[in-house]
Amino acid sequence: MTDEQAFLEDYDAVRFPAVAVTVDVALFTLRAGRLCVLLIRRGDHPFKGRWALPGGFIMPGEDLDQAAARELREETGLVDVNLEQLRSYGAPKRDPRMRVVTVTYIAVVPDADAPDAASDAADARFWPVEDLLPAGRKVLAFDHDKILADARERVQAELEHSLLAALFCEPEFTIAELRRVYEAIWGVELDPANFQRKVTSIPGFLIATDQQSGATSAGGRPARLFRLGEAKSLQPPISRPGK
Amino acid sequence: MTDEQAFLEDYDAVRFPAVAVTVDVALFTLRAGRLCVLLIRRGDHPFKGRWALPGGFIMPGEDLDQAAARELREETGLVDVNLEQLRSYGAPKRDPRMRVVTVTYIAVVPDADAPDAASDAADARFWPVEDLLPAGRKVLAFDHDKILADARERVQAELEHSLLAALFCEPEFTIAELRRVYEAIWGVELDPANFQRKVTSIPGFLIATDQQSGATSAGGRPARLFRLGEAKSLQPPISRPGK
DNA sequence: CAAATAGTGTCTATAAGACATTATAGT
DNA sequence: ACTATAATGTCTTATAGACACTATTTG
Hints:
Chain A has helices at 3-13, 64-76, 114-118, 129-132, 144-161, 164-167, 175-186, 192-201, and strands at 20-31, 34-41, 51-52, 55-57, 83-89, 100-108, 124-128, 206-212, 224-228.
């Protein structure tokens, strides 16, 4: 018997604490100018009837990212959604049943993709994040209030230097649509003229198409449509006012 | 039997995949102008003899942050070290023995605190990060190369807008010492004059004491000593050149 | 004295914000 | 024509970087 074989036998006997690992996903979209997140109403105890982030156990043979993608697909039917790990939560009593460590993810889809995701039943829908985060009051199941608050903070921070904002838009979008993403998530008003000059000057961020946006009922000059460029980050960043 | 009691009984029977959860800590310090990280030489299989980040299983009743603090204390004797979660890694085969998900942390200490940490034996010491991250080559045990690379990237990014740099310094430090932290971790040279003006103008960052640094063998005017202020982040940030 | 480091002042190029102006649509 | 939105231009102010200059130490 080799050293390694001996070790592997020993190791089976090691008493490591029984822990379950789950992934939870905060899926965001922009709806009516408000940042919204997908929640599932729990049908079982604990927290029966309460709203919670979608998620579930990781399976043998799948990586954490794959588990998050699978859970999102199972709960919403969405595929090819950009997922990004937020952080992990593992307070001993965060699940009353047993020790559960959850690895959380952030996902973003355009509003148009979102309805399919949540249309199947009354127990899955998008909620305005603002309404779910009243200071100090617990609203969601488990520690999902904290996770949601952290997720929103991360999204707000990432707008400054990542391409995340564009994921809230259709593949082709106008600069005004992009600006409304920033305005909704940061809760500020941005000068349209300065915003336009800023984003168009960031190398690799936006690629102008020869298309124009359809006319809106409000009138006004049609806007050019842009696609996402090849940049991986915003250099220089779009700085958040008043922060 | 209530609904909830029934559920709890059912739940014991649920077959969730057997997973172990560990915490790993990347403890950084600055030594001879180089960013260094604490590694432990593994005495057992797998990866016997290879260097790895310190870490271990989480215990029942302790939160993830507490587990990281405990592991750091057990391996180095250090207490009251600022720990920050990096992210989690859970590829199915990252540990050949079984499914292990690790939650990783970043810690930072001044050089003066570091020797105690690693002085106990030949199998715990600080290594220059630069020497451990040759492009594409695997050096450390498990997936710790990837973890270390991600940790360094996070540290580099956090210098821009957090107070992290000051944690590499003693409680009272000179602006030149602070500047050398930035220079070492970013791998750049910064203009001393502009750096001085920049950091002293960030509100809440530095508090001037009435002390002066001791004289160095090289001569030169003694520098004022500063303490960390009450700010939680750098506003405006210290921007990284050429990035 | 020279050399080295700390700290201040100054100039310039660049970027950000306020806001005017032009362009093109709907009603 | 009037209003609404898109896009560009202009002006002012703030900031970053280069670098000269002064201050205070060691050898």
